[in-house]
Design brief:
Length: about 400
């Protein structure tokens, strides 16, 4: 049973095995044992340090994670104490890691884009882990006031144990793009919950890219605060040997004439590389005239890799404009390789071209040139391991 705000701001109960009841009280989130539906794909022993109650483990002059914010003129940045609005008005923790993140974070980062403001340059936050053995608990609150427009880019790097809650309020008529790059070192543990409330006639784009880390488990949630809102959720991931990358998405169409589009693509290579994608879209009785589609595609590049992909649609009204989902997982297409090599292209280069083509359709939608260039370079680096080994 999950409770989320409906259009009027009241609490409406949602019955779903995929969404435990949210709560700020840690007692409502006992440690999972791995048999729960929402935890059955997660490597419990490896993620166990993120399920323990621990404060931020900073040392004098040496934080567990260093945060560097670059905010252009016109953007307001400050902090919020626990219980200080607007902190906690959009995101209520849906699992134990999210509750621990809030409990362990005294001061949340607060970023506000004023009404009727268009920020030309991206707002950037560098998040650098300093120690794989230390915990960082982070809460970030982002508010895009009515009719504002901005792009925010988070880049995670280094080594740490990171719990992260990001609540995003996209108010009426606002246009916000949020990009989260998980470029961690191979020993990092990361659990995050990103929840957005999309206002009347607002536009929200969430881009999630996971290439690094030992275990990365991310929840991306969206609900609406009025009709006409639109949400696009794009994602890329590349799992290497022994790496576990898990993305869980939930879109709650709790207002009429809203839209959502989900498109996630991943590649896997190496022994025990594991990717998990769970997509769930709920269309409530009130949500007439909505449009939604969710898609997940996985490309398996080597033996020993595994992808789990589970799309879900929960529909409570037949008065909708359109709804659908798709999921595909397949090995590298030998026919494509044969086609290219038969035209004189080297087999290694041919494989690189096919995989880059698989990713580039998502990359080109981001719209931030330096981020797109970084992602192309990262895919090239990942491919060097598998393609180079095939020489």
């Amino acid at each position: 049973m999950t409770e989320v705000p409906n259009v009027a701001g009241a609490i409406e109960t949602l019955e779903s095995h995929l969404h435990p009841q949210p709560s700020f009280d840690l007692a409502d989130h006992p440690s999972p044992n791995g048999r729960e539906e929402v935890w059955r794909f997660t490597p419990m022993r490896r993620i166990a340090p993120l399920l323990e109650e621990r404060a931020n483990e900073d040392r004098e002059g040496d934080p567990a994670v260093a945060f560097t914010l670059n905010a252009p003129d016109g953007v307001e940045a400050s902090t919020l104490n626990r219980g200080q609005a607007p902190r906690g008005t959009v995101l209520v923790p849906g699992d134990r890691p999210a509750a621990l993140a809030d409990l362990g974070c005294e001061d949340a980062l607060y970023v506000r884009i004023p009404a009727n403001t268009e920020v030309a340059e991206p707002i950037r936050l560098e998040i650098e882990g300093r120690d794989a053995g230390r915990r960082s608990n982070a809460v970030h609150v982002i508010v895009a006031e009515p009719n504002s427009k901005a792009t925010i880019v988070y880049r995670h790097s280094g080594s740490t144990q990171q719990l992260e809650n990001i609540e995003i309020d996209v108010r009426d008529g606002a246009n916000l793009t949020f990009v989260s790059l998980q470029d961690w070192a191979d020993d990092t543990l990361h659990a995050a919950e990103h929840t957005a409330r999309v206002g009347r006639d607002a536009t929200y784009r969430h881009v999630n890219v996971s290439f690094g880390g030992d275990v990365v488990r991310m929840h991306t949630n969206v609900y609406y605060d009025g009709p006409g809102g639109s949400a696009e959720l794009f994602g890329l991931y590349f799992a290497d040997a022994g790496q576990h990358i898990e993305h869980r998405l939930f879109v709650d169409h709790n207002a009429p004439h809203t839209k959502s589009n989900i498109d996630y693509r991943g590649a896997l290579q190496g022994q025990d590389a594991h990717a998990v994608w769970i997509g769930d879209v709920v269309i409530r009785k009130v949500a007439e005239g909505i449009e939604t589609y969710e898609s997940n595609k996985n490309l398996v590049l080597s033996e020993g890799a595994r992808a789990d992909s589970v799309p879900n649609l929960e529909i409570e009204t037949g008065e909708i404009a359109g709804a659908g989902h798709s999921s595909t997982t397949g090995r590298f297409d030998d026919e494509h390789l044969f086609y290219l090599t038969s035209r004189g292209i080297d087999p290694v280069e041919a494989k690189r071209l096919v995989v880059m083509g698989f990713f580039v359709d998502i990359i080109r939608r981001i719209g931030i040139p330096d981020v797109e260039e970084r992602l192309v370079a990262e895919v090239e680096r990942e491919l060097a391991a598998s393609v180079g080994a095939a020489k």
